[in-house]
Amino acid sequence: MQSPLSWTGFGQWAFLAAAFAFLLLTGWRWDRRRSEQAGAARAEIAAFTLTGAWALVVAGTGYETLASQAFETLRSLAWLSLAFAMFSRDGRHTSVAPIRPVMAALVFVEMLQFLLLMMNLQYGGNAVTQAMIFQISVLFRLLVATGALVLVHNLYAGAMAQQRVALRWTCIAMATVWGYDLNLYTIAYLAHGLPVELEAMRGLAQIGVAGLLTIGAVRGRSALRFSPSRAVAFQSLSLLVIGAYMIVMVGAAQSLAWLGGNAGQLAQLGFVFVTSVLVLAILPSGRLRGWIKVMLAKHFFQHRYDYRAEWLRFTRTIGRAGTHAPSLHERVVQAVADITDSSAGLLLCQAESGEMVLSARWQWPTADVPAEAIAADKVSFFEKRGFIVDLDELRAGVEHQGERSAVPQWLVEEHSAWALVPLLHFDRLVGLVVLGRPSVARKLDWEDFDLLRVVGMQLASYLAEHAGQSALLEASRFEEFNRRMAFVMHDIKNLASQLSLLSRNAEKHAENPAFRADMLITLRNSADKLNALLARLSRYGGNAAERVEDIDASEVIRTVAGRYNAPGMLQVHVTHDAPCRVLANREVLEQVMLHLVQNAIDASPEGMAVFLQCNVDGLYGTIEIIDTGCGMSAEFIRNRLFRPFVSTKQGGFGIGAYEAREMVRAMRGKLEVESREGLGSRFMVRLPLAATQGLIDSIEGDSGSPGKKVA
C-alpha cells in the first residue's frame, strides 16, 4: 500500500502537468480570440488561465493551503463566468428569467469562501473552529457544484440537435470539473477531511478536462441558438429541488446529531420518517406537477406553449389507430384537452335538423347533457364569429360579443365546464368542444385562444373528411343496391316481353294443340327463369366466379330460338348448328343469348329475322347473333355500348350489353361486336372448347391468369 507521501508527490506532478496543459491551452486560445465572440473568448481565456494558475499553486504549496483555496475559488468563479457567457450567446440569460438569479446565487455562495478564509486566519489556532469552518466550506462547494451541474445540463439539453456538436466537449469538460468536485466534497463532508488519494487524482481529472477542451476547440464552433424545451426545464427544476432537498436533509441530520445520545438518534429517525412521508405524498400529485408546469410557462419562457411538442402530440393523438383505439370523435376531444391540460371534454356535433347534440365524451361520464345541447337558432353565433367562450368570464358577468345568449344554461350551471371551442371548416361549424376545468385553475389568455382556434380548424377538417368518407361509403352502398335492382328489372323486362309475345300469339293460335303444348313449355321456362333470377340476386356485384361445364352450344342456340319462334311466326333463324362442345354455364349462357337476341329483335325492323349460328374457331367455339337492323357507329361501340346505364332505346336501362359481356368474361370467354350503320350488327360470343381445356389452362397458367372451376 502506498504511503501518503507518495500520493502527495504523485499529486504534485499531476497538478504540474495540468497547469502546463492549461497554460498551453490559454496561449492557443488567445491566438484565436479574434475569430469568435469577444465575451465568450474572454471568459474561456480567464477560465483556462485561472485553472492553470490554481493547478500551479496546488503543485507548489499543497492542496489545503489558504492560497490554494483562494485560487480554487477564483477558478470556480471563472468557470461560472464561462457558463454564463455560453448562455448569453443567444440572449438566454435575458429570455429565461432564473438564469441571472441562479448565477448570482452561485457566485455569492462561492464568494463566501473568502470570508471563511479570513475566519480561518483569525481562528487558526482553534481546532474545533477550524473543523466547523471546513465543514461549512465543503457544504458551500457542494452547493455550487450541484447548481453548476444543473446549469450545464440546461445548456446542453436545451440546444438544438445540430448545435449540440459545438457544445458537447465544453459541456463534458465543465461537467467533469464540477462532477469531480461533487464527489470529492461529498466524501470530504462525510469523512470530515479530504482524502489524500482523491486530492492527487484531481490533477489527472484536470488534465482530462484540458484534453476535452482541446478536442472541442479543434472540432470548431458554430453560432448557437438556445431552444429549451418544457421537459428540460421541468427536469432541471426537479434537479434543483432534489439538490435543495439533499442539502436540507444533510444539514438537518447534522444539526440533530449535535444533540447527542438517544434523543439525537430518535430525532433523526423521526425527521427522516416525516420528510419521507411528505415526499411520497406530494411528489406524485398531479396538481403539484400541473402547478410546476404553469409556473415554468409563466416565468421561464416567453411563450406558454412549446408549439413543436404540442403539434407532435396532437398528430399522435389524432393518428392513433387500431382496434382498441378510441373513436375519431373521442380523439378530437382529447387532442384539444391535452393542449390546455383539461381533465375532460365533450364534443357536440350538428344534427340533421340543425341543433347541436352530444357526439362523444372524453373522461366526463357525469356531464348531464340534454338531448338538444344547443338550439339550432344559436348555432349561427359560433359559425359566424368563431368565438372561443371562456365560461368562467361568462359566469362572472363578462360578455364580449353577445355570447351569453348563445351559450345554453346547462353549460353555465355545469361548473366543471371551462371553455367552449368551435370547430370551423370553411366557415361552416362542424362541431363544438366543451373543455373541462384543468387541475390547476388559470385564466385563458391570447395565446390559448390563438392555438385553440388553429387546432379547431385542423380538427374540423378531420371531422369533415370523416363525414365525407362516411357519405361516400353510404352512397356506394346505395349505388350497388340500385345496380342490382337495375339488373333485376332488366331481366324481368325480358321475361315480360316473352310473356307478352306469348299472350298475343295465344289470341291467334289458342285452338291449336301444338301451340298450347309449346305455350306450356314457354310458361314453364319463364317460371324457371324467374326462380333462377331470384337465386342469382346475391351474386350481382359480388364478382362470383361462374361454375362451368361441358355443354353443346348448338343446343343452347336452338333452345333460345325456340322461345322466340311460334307456329306460323319465325323470328329467329338458326343457320348453322353443328355440334360445338364448349366450357360454359348453361343457364348463364342462355341468359346472355336472351339479352343479345332481344336487343337484335328490338333493333331490327318489323318482320325482319335474326340469325343464329354456331362454329368452331381454333381453340374457341363461336356463337354469332346477326341482325339487319339500324346498326351502330364505331364511336358508339367504343365509348357507349358496354357502358352501364347508357341506352338509345326509349325506357331502356342500358345494361343488357354490359351484363352480357361481364357474364361471358366470367366464363373465360369474349364478347365481340361488328356493326355498320344502316346495315346491321354481328355479336360473337367466343367460349373455350371443352376439348382444348388442358391447353388453355396451361397457356393461362403460364401468363398468371386464374382458372375457373369445371364441373
TrEMBL record:
Domain Histidine kinase: from-to ranges: 487-691
Lineage: Bacteria, Pseudomonadati, Pseudomonadota, Alphaproteobacteria, Sphingomonadales
NCBIfam families for this protein: PEP_his_kin (TIGR02916)
Enzyme Commission no: 2.7.13.3
Gene3D superfamilies in the record: Histidine kinase-like ATPase, C-terminal domain
PROSITE patterns linked: HIS_KIN (PS50109)
Entry keyword Transferase: yes
Pfam entry (one): HATPase_c
Swiss-Prot/TrEMBL catalytic activity: ATP + protein L-histidine = ADP + protein N-phospho-L-histidine
Keywords: Kinase, Membrane, Transferase, Transmembrane, Transmembrane helix
Protein name per UniProt: histidine kinase
Source organism superkingdom: Bacteria
Alphabetical list of InterPro entries matching this protein: HATPase_C_sf, HATPase_dom, His_kinase_dom, Sig_transdc_His_kin-like_C, XrtA/PrsK
Molecular-function annotations in GO: protein histidine kinase activity
Transmembrane segments: 12-31, 99-121, 133-157, 169-191, 203-220, 232-253, 265-283
Keyword Membrane set for record: yes
Alphabetical list of SMART domains matching this protein: HATPase_c (SM00387)
Class of enzymatic activity (EC top level): transferase
